[in-house]
Amino acid sequence: MKKIMILGASVLQLPAIEKAKAMGLEVIAVDMNPEAIGFNVPEVTREVISTIDTPAVLEAARKHRIDGIMTLASDMPIQTVAVVSKELGLVGVSEDTALKATNKAYMRDALKEANVPIPLYYRVQGIQAFKDAVDRIQSAGYKCIVKPADNSGSRGVDLLDDNVDLDRAYDYTRQYSRSGEVVVEEFMEGPEVSVETIAVNGVVHVIQITDKVTTGAPYFVEMGHSQPSQLDADTQTRIKQVAIAANKAIGIVNGPSHTEIKVTKDGPKIVELGARLGGDCITTHLVPLSTGVDMVKACIEIALGIEPKIIPKWNKGSAIRYINAPSGIVTAIRGVEEAKEVPGVNVITIVHGIGAHINDIKSSIDRAGFVISNGDSSLIALESAGKAIDLIKYIY
């Protein structure tokens, strides 16, 4: 029986753990949280280790004599995957690619060098360099958005308005940067999409383009996704070309990527990309519902050195909408059973339930729950999800 090590055992990685077990594989799950939900899957071997503790993960991988290693929807373990796969001669991204895929500053540099369309940007450390970068971008006629160089999930992202306190803005973003580096860049305006791809032996296969809804300024937390994209065919063609070029620029040869793109007045430009499957249930739920392609299975196969078959089976619609509940302490939630009866609704998940303190949405961890739906088109799927969301009421 082949052994696959999966970095992360939270709800994000649970679909990979369950899929690997269904494929008849021996699963070694790694997570620093001993209560992680993935550890509850029957016959899973537990390793209570931080997924970014590379030496400890490598030691465990050697101990178990694994045949493959992967993570599903998290950026943080990618560099660990790269080191372990290199040391054990397994399929995985290189350490150089892992760095470019997880550090926004290095990512921007690689994309710029390959002439992939990106926003005007500056890598900075220190308040004076930060202020100088903001001034240069504003002098060029753009609004500024700032991000920690090495975090994810919208943590530390901030759009600067005209009256912003720059010291406060720098301190807010800087606290989320592990390295201390901050990226200051042109704020791109236009529709935002993500592109779900799998590379096999250097050929990048575009599986789906996902339309996205965010909270907007200043934090831009993702609150909904739908497939397939409703953008026109020519724009989608250009989006695919940019996504493929970005994958090649950072060196993804075998494995997935989740590439976020803004369609600006100058054409599609890269927001960022990850050398992993898309989170927010995009690749675990939406892609199978809209295309019939099992991207999780394909990524497990790639990690084991097996060439996957990537053949879309249909063209339907799917959507996820997140619950934007007011802040406060939850005493009751009503309407969930009624919402489940809405035609097209597949999944309703309450993330922050009774007794939880819900915060205003500043990052993805603040979202109260979500609804997943499907239909003959993305519009129909979105309509179903919206009806279900409207029925769910939080009581405080």
Q: What share of the residues lie within helices?
A: 25-40%
Mean pLDDT across all amino acids: 95
Note poorly predicted spans: none
Instruction: Give the percentage of residues in beta strands.
Output: 25-35%
Secondary structure layout:
Blueprint: E1 3-7, H1 14-22, E2 26-30, E3 45-47, H2 54-64, E4 68-70, H3 78-88, H4 95-102, H5 104-113, E5 121-124, H6 127-139, E6 144-148, E7 158-160, H7 166-174, E8 182-186, E9 192-200, E10 203-214, E11 222-227, H8 233-250, E12 255-264, E13 267-274, H9 282-291, H10 295-303, E14 317-322, E15 328-329, E16 332-334, H11 336-340, E17 345-350, E18 357-358, E19 369-375, H12 378-391, E20 393-395
Parallel strand pairs: 1-2, 1-4, 2-3
Antiparallel strand pairs: 5-8, 6-7, 6-8, 9-10, 9-12, 10-11, 11-14, 12-13, 14-19, 15-18, 16-20, 17-19
Helix pairs in contact: 2-3, 3-4, 4-5
Considering the chains and any ligands shown, give keywords for the structure.
396 residues, eight-stranded antiparallel sheet, single chain, alpha+beta, four-stranded parallel sheet, 20 strands
Q: What would you note in describing this structure?
A:
The chain is of the alpha+beta class. The chain contains 12 helices and 20 strands. It has helices spanning 14-22, 54-64, 78-88, 95-102, 104-113, 127-139, 166-174, 233-250, 282-291, 295-303, 336-340, 378-391, and strands at residues 3-7, 26-30, 45-47, 68-70, 121-124, 144-148, 158-160, 182-186, 192-200, 203-214, 222-227, 255-264, 267-274, 317-322, 328-329, 332-334, 345-350, 357-358, 369-375, 393-395. The strands form 5 sheets. The chain has an 8-stranded antiparallel beta sheet, sandwiched between helices. Strand 1 (3-7), helix 1 and strand 2 form a beta-alpha-beta unit. Helix 2 (54-64) packs across helix 3 (78-88), helix 3 (78-88) runs antiparallel to helix 4 and helix 4 crosses helix 5 (104-113).
